[in-house]
Amino acid sequence: MKLIIMRHGQASWSAPSDSLRPLTEAGRHEVRHTVEQLQGEGVNRIVASPYLRAQQTADIASEILGVEVDTINGITPDDRPADAIGQLPEQGNVLVVSHMPLVSALTALLCDGVPSDGPGFGTADAAVLSLEMPAAGLASLQRMLPA
C-alpha cells in the first residue's frame, strides 16, 4: 500500500480558534500544485483532520483525484503519532491530510520506528510512503513532494 502524508496548505491566522483557520488563496494554490503531482499515485481514499484548513485541503484533493474524504479525529496537531497509526486505513493508497508536528513525527515513526523529528514539511508538502500496513518501522520513504 501507499500512504501519502500531506500537510495542509498555508492558512490564515485570522480565526476565532486554531481549529477554524481557513486556507489562504496562496494555500489553495499550493495544495492544487501538490495534489496534481499525486494524480498517478492511485489514491483511492482520503482521510483528514477535522480542522478547517485540513478539511479544505482534503476537499481540493477530492476534487482533483475524484476520491471522497473521511474525517479522522485523532490526527490533529496535538495528537500522538502512535495513536494516529491505529486510526489509519490498513489497505489501499491513502492520502492523509494533517498538521505539523504530527505529519513529521508520524512519518518518522512509520519509517524509523520512533516518533522523533522526521522530515520537515512546509505547507502542502507531502511524503509518499510504501508499506505493507501502517505500523512503526515498516514504511519506506519513496519521495517528498514540495508544494
UniProtKB/TrEMBL annotation:
Stored InterPro entries: His_Pase_superF_clade-1, His_PPase_superfam, PGM_Phosphatase, SixA
Superkingdom of origin: Bacteria
Short name of one Pfam family: His_Phos_1
Protein name: Phosphohistidine phosphatase SixA
Organism field: Endozoicomonas gorgoniicola
Phylogenetic placement of the source organism: Bacteria, Pseudomonadati, Pseudomonadota, Gammaproteobacteria, Oceanospirillales
Gene this chain is encoded by: sixA
